[in-house]
Design a protein that fits this description.
- The protein has helices at residues 6-15, 38-51, 55-67, 85-88, and strands at 19-23, 27-32, 71-76, 90-93.
- By secondary structure, the protein is an alpha+beta fold.
- The protein has 2 domains: 1-34 and 69-94; 35-68.
- The protein has a 4-stranded antiparallel β-sheet.
- A hairpin with a 3-residue loop joins strand 1 (19-23) and strand 2.
- Helix 2 packs antiparallel against helix 3 (55-67).
- The protein starts with 5 loop residues before the first helix and ends with a strand.
């Protein structure tokens, strides 16, 4: 990556919530862990007690969380100078 150091790329993705999981000479691998929304879960629990509804939505939210994958991005460091970073980063699910 012309003009961008490893440290700069690591900081950029770190600010976006990614964690560096592999650092090699040719590429960097970042992982963004899945997140559970406790705010929505609390709302559904309150709706269960207040109106008797919300259990279905809470179950759906838990199922959606369990089915999510961690987002993985691989940044290739050995690209030509005229290639921008968006075409270099590959997104995968783990």
């Amino acid at each position: 990556m012309a003009g961008k150091s490893k440290v700069g790329i690591i900081q950029k993705y770190g600010q976006r919530g990614y964690v560096l999981t592999y650092e090699g000479d040719d590429y960097l691998q970042f992982t963004k862990p899945k997140r559970f929304s406790f705010g929505w879960a609390l709302l559904w629990v309150l709706l269960i007690f207040a109106f008797g509804i919300g259990l279905l939505f809470l179950a759906i939210q838990i199922i959606m969380y369990l089915s999510k994958k961690d987002e993985v991005i691989i940044v290739n460091l050995k690209q030509k100078e005229n290639t921008d970073e968006t075409t270099v980063a590959q997104r995968q699910s783990r």
